[in-house]
Fold this sequence. Notes:
Layout: H1 3-73, H2 76-81, E1 91-97, E2 100-110, E3 115-116, H3 130-143, H4 149-157, H5 170-174, H6 201-205, H7 211-219, H8 224-227, E4 242-243, H9 253-256, E5 259-260, H10 266-270, H11 278-290, H12 318-323, E6 326-327, E7 332-341, E8 344-353, E9 358-363
Parallel strand pairs: 3-4, 5-6
Antiparallel strand pairs: 1-2, 2-7, 7-8, 8-9
Amino acid sequence: MSLITKLNKQVSKKGYMILSLTSVISILTFSIVTRMFSSSVQEFAAVASLANYTKAKYLAMSSLEVVHSFLRKGKLDRMYEYGFLPESMPIPFGEQVGNSPSIIRYTAYEQTGKINVNELVGVFTGQESGKTREMLNQLSETLGINNDIWDAVVDYIDADSTNMPAGAEQQDYENLDPPRKIKNARLHSLEELLFVPGFNRRLLYDDLRSDEKKQEFSDSFFTEEEKLVVDEENDFKLVNCITTVLPYMWPSVQEADKININSANINVIMSLTADMTRDIAKKIIVERLKKTGGRFKSITELSQIPVLKANSLEGFTIYNILAKRITDKDRIFKVVAEATVGSQTAVVMSIYDVIQRKVVQYYE
């Protein structure tokens, strides 16, 4: 073999090695660049999502403050009359992300038209409140649930360690799986009821009517006015009949457990007295809807409703009994503001006292 042939073979081997090494470097470089690009894309998407959520959050907070401003400065009867309360339609706002505009919406529901679970235990006595328990028992009967569940709520709130007949104290909570602590203080939200034995999400959030009851309602004859009275989707959910307003928000103990007749639904109105029937409750709401803004200016207007002039089992007219248990004044609003930017949605909530003109609770 000639020297030239040997040199050519050596050159060929070196060229092959260089080519192979170059190929490996190119593949590794491409792989690294691809991974870096993929990582950059993911980081960009994460940053974009965070940016959209931040925008949505501040939009929701701004919407919440606008509602607070109207509640603080506006006339509530006018706001009801012109449809500002209780909830808005989705409102396009700000920049468009992709094919979707930014959206804000809010709800502002008055809370004192519901039975206040925190009033189950007296502020000064620390004992069960007979009046509030009576209303909750009536509500339980109307919704078809066991009224023994309120025993456990009394024990959850009160400071003593004595069990109610169907209640639960610390030892009972320690025996749960998993064990938990009893609060022995007022509830700050309805969701806390899920910690109380006997409560679950279905009981709190679902329509509690049986199939038979639903059929009964669908077969019932309603006038056009009465069709506006019952909100079948919401009135039979426990969460829409009770609240957890803190007692210190009230100017006097005498007002604390009064129900706002202007915002109470049919099942709460039925819970006001044992003499109340569904037909009477429907009549109250029908008369309420006829008023400007769908609200009574004064509870004395109820005295003109014929069915309320009838004598009750206690010898008084139904109106006389109701007058001691109701108010026509709005006071505590639960305001929820929601904003959507792109695929991100932010929700903020407050409890607003229109008498004190301030936010007393805030949640994100």
